Hints:
By secondary structure, this protein is of the alpha+beta class.
Amino acid sequence: MTAEQNIWVDVFSSHSDSTEAEDSYVDAQITLMLGRYASQIDRVEVYLLADETQTQTQTQPQFQCTIGVGLKGYNAVEANEVASKASDAINACAHRTM
């Protein structure tokens, strides 16, 4: 028997032309990639920030991703470790989808 796993993923973007479909896609991909952490993660906040160092000639914007992770029943050291692992997964996902 498997318990249903619910992770709240909130996507915040600094680019105004982001569509709801794009945000939903990022949400779905991040949830999928964090599947192995689902039992530890209660909430994920994803901030997709435009890379200020990119040149104007690039046609596809690149984004840097930072996260805040809400954990239940974990101390700060454990929370930071999980957040670091989750951040790596999310960064990989965000750069593939944008």
